[in-house]
Design goal:
The protein is mainly alpha-helical. The protein has helices spanning 2-30, 42-68, 72-76. Helix 1 (2-30) packs antiparallel against helix 2. The chain starts with a helix and ends in a 5-residue tail after the last helix.
Length: 81
């Protein structure tokens, strides 16, 4: 589950970086003055961060709970049923 949380948080940070890099080019192509100021729009960043945490929890919960239901002795003896 920790790996899923880490991956979703890293993806969130990378997405913020890509957004900052490509926003001026997209603003030029669209002909509009688009900007993203994290100091003024902090609630959007916090909301997306919370969404990334929820995504990591949901993505990691199924494999974590499913794999933790196996008993190691039975799995190693190939008696999964």
């Amino acid at each position: 589950m920790g790996e899923s949380l880490l991956m979703s948080t890293i993806a969130f940070v990378i997405a913020l970086g890509i957004t900052q890099l490509l926003l001026p080019a997209f603003s030029h192509v669209s002909g509009r003055n688009l900007s993203l100021h994290f100091s003024q729009q902090w609630f959007i960043v916090v909301g997306f961060f919370i969404l990334s945490i929820i995504t990591g929890l949901l993505a990691g919960s199924y494999p974590a709970f499913y794999l933790s239901s196996f008993q190691p002795v039975k799995v190693l003896k190939r008696k999964i049923h």
